[in-house]
Amino acid sequence: MFHMKMRLEKPEIAKRAGEEGKIYSFGKEIWRFILVFLVGSFIAGLIPAIYEMYLFLSDMEMFDQLQRLFLNGDSSFSDMMELATNMTDGMYILTLFCTLILIISVLIYCNKIEKRSYYSMGIVKKDGAKHYVQGLLIGAVSFSLCVLVGAALGFVDIKGWNQNCNLLIVLLYFIGFLVQGFSEEITFRGYFMISLMKRSSAVKAVLVNSLAFAFCHMLNPGLTILAFLNLLLIGIFLSLYVIKTNDIWGAAGYHSMWNFVQGTFYGISVSGTNVGSAVLSSEIKPGNIFLTGGKFGMEGSIVATVVMAAVLVLGMLYYNRKETKQNIAG
Length: 330
Fold this sequence. Notes:
With 330 residues, the chain is mainly alpha-helical. The protein has one domain (12-329). It contains 13 helices and 2 strands. The chain has helices at 12-20, 26-58, 60-72, 77-85, 89-98, 100-113, 128-153, 167-197, 202-215, 225-245, 249-265, 289-292, 302-329; strands at residues 156-161, 280-284. Strands 1-2 form a two-stranded antiparallel ribbon. Helix 8 packs antiparallel against helix 11 (249-265). The two termini are 23 Å apart.
């Protein structure tokens, strides 16, 4: 028999943040986060936006689509978002790399304004490389399980190797997703969640930052209620990952590899955004969006719900058992 601890203790990095950083009210922490996130995201999105506008204006077919959307009014907002997220490889890779600007924005804010050390943000040297590699592996296995279940149920068809795959493009995607995954983890977990813990319980901080994480994907094409709940579940899992490892490395590795394997390896839509080149040629067959995830991709399917719930439970059992052994040994 086994049991899971109901009480969630704050990690050492959160305690350090409370000792060294400025402490604001719960409400102020939220609006400060919104401001930092919006400013950082806006600056990070400027270069891709300018480049995408150049592509639209230099390509007559894309220009005609843009003209129909804005002048004729014959398309919905979701149509505009879908057009914007069907990017070229160059555009997508540029967007991934530009999330480095969000990382820099968050680091500057936390370090210079909140007076927090990098350690309190989860940038911990001890076991960092080990946790990062573990996160990469677990992320790859987790999404691969989603694909295998989908294939077994008959709605995912893996046709084989993509003959048009460019290994250099794949490498650039891999590095780009490493940057993008880290940017979201340092923003939502390393900064926001830990800042909330300075005055609030760990449970409250986990739920609030996970809701913020899910809401920030609200404009992605094809978002459904189930997709939103899955994003919330993923946010909770990544939050607990940070708490249990006392750093952001494992969560960042998991997040990056989940997206990379999903989009660039299997060629499946990443949160409603299509990746151009992929290692494998895969197809999600039309059908019940409850199973397939629809336009949002497999992250919006019940399969992802089951896999993420299983990973969450197994992860908590593993770390609770590990902590129990350490307490007995101590």
